[in-house]
Structures are given as C-alpha cells and as structure tokens.
C-alpha cells in the first residue's frame, strides 16, 4: 500500500483529501502545517502539498525538501488557488512534479497522485531472488534451493515484500500497513507470529539468521544475501 503525506491547513479540504485518497486505497498521513513534515515523509511515497500554509509556506518547504539528501526525490503534487501561469511555473521550478489548482475534482486528484506513484515507483519484479531463495510473484510461489515452500497467502505476501526490499528495516506497524493493509484489525504480535513461521519454512536460525533478521527496537529486515550469513 502506497503512503501519501498531505500537508494542508484548511481542515475541510484536508479531510476531503484524506477521504478520497484513502478511498483510492492509499495510506494517508495528514498535517496542518510543515511542522514535522520532513519526519512524516520518512518512508512515504508521495507528498500532496498546499502552497499557502501558516508559518512556512509550501513553496519554502518544497525547497527544503529538495535540499534534503534522503528526501529530494520525493514526488510532490502542489495544491494552490493561484492560477497565474507565472506562479505555476515558479512552483514547478522549485521542485514540484505536478500542479493542481483549487477547486479540483476528486477524480483528478486521485488520478494525478496515482500518476506520480507510477512514474516514481518501479513495478514489482515478477521473480525475486535472494541467494537460494526465489519468490515468483506472479505464481505466488516461493522456493528454497529449488524446493517449493508451503506458505499461506499472508506468509507469502510478507516474504515477497521483505525480499523485494531486502536490506531495509521495517517496523511492525509499517509491515501491518504494507502487507496486511489499513483495514486489518489485528495487532503487532501478528507480524511476530508470521516471521516465526517464515523462519521455520526457511530453516532460519533466529539467533544467527541468514534471512529474516530482528533489528532490536526497530523491527525486521530481510538480509541481502550479499551480506553473508
């Protein structure tokens, strides 16, 4: 599930943005100012940013964002009531990827956000490999040293996600959002149980994992095979 951050100071507009983006199947974090904005964008996939904000303007925040080494490639859709061509050009030249003038339709908003996500997120490869582990996404099948693993659907989804993002640490909450979805009502213990089950399937020793590593205080990651075991 893609994660979109919305920064919009008008409460009604912010609620409308959240409603339509969540209805489109996206996870949304909504803020009323740029305070804490860079922190909120860590792990996000796109930003919907209003031009006119209290305190720091959206344009100023965008410039800071583009100067941040880790977040400079974040796709940004700028929202504004400014319709003049010169102002649209200023927004784009400051680093916005797209521009939407208020008022706008929900359909156009969702279409533009999805277009940004398609351009910036590569398609999931159909076959993922990590050493002796192979995950066939299209067939929903995983093999270890050529032997098929008998996984449940959710075990497979978790394994595929972590394999695709090998080397990156994900918290339990992030894994619940990305793999189980925002509507899932279970707790973080569910992630622990599935990791334990996957380790059994993979023949992974929790004390010296070759694949699924527990990162204390942070969560889990799939070790990239190049790191060694």
TrEMBL record:
A Pfam short name: Trans_reg_C
Alphabetically sorted, this entry's keywords are:
DNA-binding, Phosphoprotein, Transcription, Transcription regulation
Instruction: According to the UniProt record, list the residues that bear 4-aspartylphosphate.
Output: 50
PROSITE patterns under this entry?
Answer: OMPR_PHOB, RESPONSE_REGULATORY
Q: Which InterPro entries match?
A: CheY-like_superfamily (IPR011006), OmpR/PhoB-type_DNA-bd (IPR001867), Sig_transdc_resp-reg_C-effctor (IPR016032), Sig_transdc_resp-reg_receiver (IPR001789), WalR-like (IPR039420), WH-like_DNA-bd_sf (IPR036388)
- Keyword Transcription among record annotations: yes
UniProt DNA-binding residue ranges? 125-224
Q: In this protein, which residues make up the domain named Response regulatory?
A: 3-117
* Segments forming domain OmpR/PhoB-type: 125-224
Source organism's superkingdom? Answer: Bacteria
Database matches in PANTHER family: DNA-BINDING DUAL TRANSCRIPTIONAL REGULATOR OMPR, REGULATOR OF RPOS
Identification of the protein by name: Response regulator transcription factor
């Amino acid at each position: 599930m893609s994660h979109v951050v919305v920064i919009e100071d008008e409460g009604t507009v912010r609620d409308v943005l959240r409603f339509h983006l969540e209805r489109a199947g996206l996870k949304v974090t909504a803020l009323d100012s740029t305070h804490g904005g860079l922190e909120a964008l860590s792990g996000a996939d796109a930003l919907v940013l209003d031009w006119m904000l209290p305190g720091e303007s959206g344009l100023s925040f965008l410039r800071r964002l583009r100067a941040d080494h880790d977040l400079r490639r974040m796709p940004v859709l700028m929202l504004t009531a400014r319709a003049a061509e010169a102002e649209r050009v200023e927004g784009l030249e400051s680093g916005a990827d797209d521009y939407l003038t208020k008022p706008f339709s929900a359909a156009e908003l969702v279409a533009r956000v999805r277009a940004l996500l398609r351009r910036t997120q590569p398609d999931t490869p159909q076959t993922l490999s990590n050493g002796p582990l192979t995950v066939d996404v299209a067939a929903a099948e995983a093999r270890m040293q050529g032997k098929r693993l008998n996984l449940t659907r959710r075990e497979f989804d978790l394994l595929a996600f972590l394999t695709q993002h090998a080397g990156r640490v994900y918290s339990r909450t992030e894994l619940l959002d990305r793999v189980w979805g925002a509507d899932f009502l279970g707790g973080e213990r569910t992630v622990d149980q599935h990791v334990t089950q996957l380790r059994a399937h993979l023949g992974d020793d929790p004390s010296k994992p070759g694949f699924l590593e527990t990162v204390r205080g942070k969560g889990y990651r799939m070790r990239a095979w190049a790191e060694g075991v």
